[in-house]
């Protein structure tokens, strides 16, 4: 069962707890919308200095907006377009310190200055992406990337189940 726990302020320790929380929160649930909705809410509660946290799901050769927390967003993103489409094309996390310097960046929220996008793969097949935006430049570091990738791996396990 999911237990809400206060965070300690120690980044790695708190991320480890977050990964355990998404695993517990997702246990036994098979509805993808429900899983992604709770995951976006959990991340939004945990992360500081972010203005958008959510998912895009791969459908009919493009990313389609899924559950999220934040302002209204772009509904569809093409393969290889923007940070999200690039993450899908390269099947690799994109950690962008300055989105304004990223060629082809899609500006859904003009307040966004940095972004991290983690691809979601089920059996090496594109499922979608976790997309997190921040109004701060260079908001995401290697620790964020490591643990957000772990967070996605836990989600992949539940989405595949």
Query: What name is given to the CATH topology?
Result: Beta-Lactamase
Radius of gyration: 15 Å
The sequence of SSEs as H and E is: HHEEEHEEEH
Tell me the helix content. Answer: 25-40%
Strand order of the largest sheet: 3-2-1-6-5-4
CATH architecture label: 2-Layer Sandwich
Distance between the termini: 18 Å
The global form is globular
Roughly what is the average pLDDT, rounded to an integer?
92
How many H/I helical runs? 4
- Poorly predicted spans: 1-5
What percent strand? 25-35%
The largest pleated sheet is described as: 6 strands, antiparallel
The total strand number stands at: 6
Assign the structural class, choosing from mainly alpha, mainly beta, alpha/beta, alpha+beta, or little secondary structure: alpha+beta
Instruction: Supply the number of structural domains.
Output: 1
Query: Class in CATH?
Result: Alpha Beta
CATH superfamily: GAF domain
InterPro entries: FRMsr_CS, GAF, GAF-like_dom_sf, Phosphatase_reg/MetRdx
Protein name: Free methionine-R-sulfoxide reductase
Pfam families: GAF_2 (PF13185)
Family: Belongs to the free Met sulfoxide reductase family.
Description:
- InterPro entries: FRMsr_CS, GAF, GAF-like_dom_sf, Phosphatase_reg/MetRdx.
- GO terms for molecular function: L-methionine-(R)-S-oxide reductase activity.
- This is Free methionine-R-sulfoxide reductase.
- Belongs to the free Met sulfoxide reductase family.
- 37% of the residues lie in helices and 26% in strands.
- With 161 residues, it is α+β, with helices and mostly antiparallel strands.
- It has one domain: GAF domain (Beta-Lactamase).
- The protein has a six-stranded antiparallel sheet with strand order 3-2-1-6-5-4, sandwiched between helices.
- It is globular, with a radius of gyration of 15 Å.
């Amino acid at each position: 069962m999911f237990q809400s726990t206060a965070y300690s302020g120690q980044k790695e320790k708190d991320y480890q707890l977050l990964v355990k929380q998404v695993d517990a929160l997702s246990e036994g649930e098979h509805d993808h919308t429900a899983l992604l909705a709770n995951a976006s809410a959990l991340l939004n509660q945990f992360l500081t200095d972010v203005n958008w946290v959510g998912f895009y799901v791969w459908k009919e050769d493009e990313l389609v907006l899924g559950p999220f927390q934040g302002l209204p967003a772009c509904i569809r993103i093409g393969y290889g377009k923007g940070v999200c489409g690039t993450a899908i094309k390269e099947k690799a996390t994109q950690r962008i310190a300055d989105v304004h310097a990223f060629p082809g960046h899609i500006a859904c929220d003009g307040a966004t200055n940095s972004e991290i996008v983690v691809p979601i793969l089920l059996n090496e097949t594109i499922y979608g992406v976790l997309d997190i935006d921040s109004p701060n430049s260079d908001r995401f570091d290697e620790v964020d990337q490591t643990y957000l990738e772990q967070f996605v791996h836990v989600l992949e396990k539940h989405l595949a189940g």
